Amino acid sequence: MRRIFLTIAGFLLLMSGIVMAAEKPNVIFIAVDDLNDWEGYMGNSQIITPNMDALASQGTFFKSAHCQYAVCGPSRASVMSGMYYHSLGFGVDGALQQKDDAVYDAVKKKGSSLIYEYFADHGYKTMAAGKLLHHHVPEETVDVSHGRGPWDFNRDENGNQKRMNWFGSKGLLDWGPINKPENEMSDYKAAEWAVDQLSQDHDKPFFLMTGFLRPHTPLHIQQKYLDMYPLDEIELPPYKADDYDDIPKAARETWNSYPTTSWAIENKQWRKMLQAYMGCITFTDVQIGKILEALENSPYKDNTIIVLWSDHGFHMGEKERFQKHTAWDRSTKVPLVIVDPRTGPTQGSTKPVDANVELIDIYPTLLDLCGLPENKVVEGRSLVPLMENPDLEWEYPAYTFRRETYATVKFGSYRFIEYFDGSMELYNHANDPNEWNNLADNDKYKDIIEHMHGLLQESDVILGYKESKQR
After folding, report:
1. Where are the domains of the chain?
2. Stretch 167-189: mean pLDDT, rounded?
3. pLDDT score, position 225
4. What digits encode the pLDDT tens for the residues 89-128?
5. Is 41 exposed, middle or buried (0-12, 13-18, 19+ CB in 10 A)?
6. Most exposed: 37, 158, 173, 449, by fewest CB within 10 Å?
7. Helix (H, G, I), strand (E, B), or coil: what is residue 422?
């Protein structure tokens, strides 16, 4: 009898575990490359992004989310590990863009796991398509893997990259219509793959990742998307010709060889570049819409958390630049949307969160939402309190770093940048959202500068960064 009792007890325990696993929410994890916070809901009414806008209106939109490194590879490594890039031993010496396997190994050495591995270790089926880490994710670490497709370039008759406008370094910043069918685009295929996964039965909760390349350069997209933005109707971003009169020399070390806004104005290309960038965003929005529609028509719709994020922003003429890498808001600020259908607001009733948050906060937030054990190695913090109360007083800063160049912090309405030659910038976004007036030399802001400097110098974040520079 005792043996029978134990068998029954074991069976009941097993069934209880199955029920608990079934109640765990699924996660759809969407990454978009080089996406500014420009979508209509998010700050630029001329952008046609009905799907991302709808997503933002159904969940929590973080208006001041910031990347930890304003370039693809390091930013993505930080998101997926929940740690600052230099905490993994990267970002100062050696290659800027570490290989995905190197990131994986560095996280393991820290006694931690990449976010999708952590979910897999706690009973989730992990699936991936497209650009997630700098290239993809190590394929042996996911149950199903559809790798990042090739870059979608215009090609000549010999299959070589065909440039149309700008012949800068690597030829990546180019713009115009692409001579490639839409259904052959990498992002189209990634979306179709995700749709297919949502049409299948899964015996475990899933963590479904899809990474989109567009609007990363080159800004090549089908003519129909360009036609959605007539050139004479495009509104130009704010521009100040003498914007650089009050910035330090060190700021110029963050620049690349892409054209300046002055060049774009002189050559009558600015609106064409914006047209291509916005067309690429709309194309990606269409792909995201396919995934959202598939989810809505699936049995998973009421138990699936969605997170949408971008690895960094991209200057499209603001601050005289067309690029990322800088310490200014256009480079560091990104869209971040989290939707939890179990507790989320009804359509149109959500209130955006003004607090400054970091992309490394995604990792612990998803663990919190999914009821998984805390990973004490990660350096981000859960955003669930802000999802529950958007007006919550949030006393945490948001940091961004650049190899041997700068550390910057966003705290309250202020952006403070400290370059490693000692020069500084300070901007008050409450009355200077375009960062046109550098207050670093203004004695009136001495106390604020001292406080912001202290946030960098006294935090484990900057101390860790300086220690890594000395290694």
Report:
1. 19-390
2. 85
3. 98
4. 886 554 567 888 889 999 999 999 999 999 999 999 999 9
5. buried
6. 158
7. coil
Q: 301-332 burial by CB neighbour count: b if 16+ within 10 A, else e?
A: eeebbbbbbbbbbbbbbbbbbbbbbbbbbbbb
Residues, the chain: 471
Question: In 199-269, which residue ranges form alpha helices assigned H by DSSP?
Answer: 223-226, 261-266
Q: 72-81 vs 100-109: helix axis angle to the nearest 10?
A: 40
* Distance (Å, whole) CA 278 – CA 158: 29
What token pair was written down for 71?
């370039």
End-to-end CA distance of the chain: 65
Count of CB atoms situated within 10 Å of the CB of 188: 21
pLDDT-derived band of residue 223, with 50, 70 and 90 as boundaries? very high
pLDDT in tens, 346-404: 444 567 899 999 999 999 999 999 999 999 999 999 999 999 999 999 999 999 998 77
Work out the number of other CB atoms within 10 angstroms of the CB of residue 61.
26
Q: Which residues are catalytic?
A: 72, 134
β-strand 424-428 against 60-66: which pairing, if any?
Answer: unpaired
- Residue that the structure tokens 């406008």 belong to: 165
Closest by CA position to 30, among listed 6, 1, 52, 54: 52
Tokens for 45? 């009414």
pLDDT tier at 167, thresholds 50, 70, 90: low
d(CA 296, CA 292): 6
Cα(379)–Cα(396) distance, integer angstroms: 12
Output helix, strand, coil percentages for the chain, rounded to the nearest 5.
40, 15, 45
Task: Please tell me the distance from the alpha carbon of residue 55 to that of residue 72, in angstroms, as a whole number.
Answer: 24
Q: For the domain 19-390, what is the CATH superfamily, name and number?
A: Alkaline Phosphatase, subunit A (3.40.720.10)
Whether 83 and 110 have beta carbons less than 8 Å apart is answered as: yes
Quote the pLDDT of residue 43: 64
Q: Which helix or strand (DSSP H or E) is residue 2 part of?
A: helix 2-23
With CA atoms as reference, report the closest residue to 65 among 386, 453, 373, 321: 386
CA angle in degrees (0–180, nearest 5) for 420-426-430: 150
Tokens standing for residue 216 = 């990363």
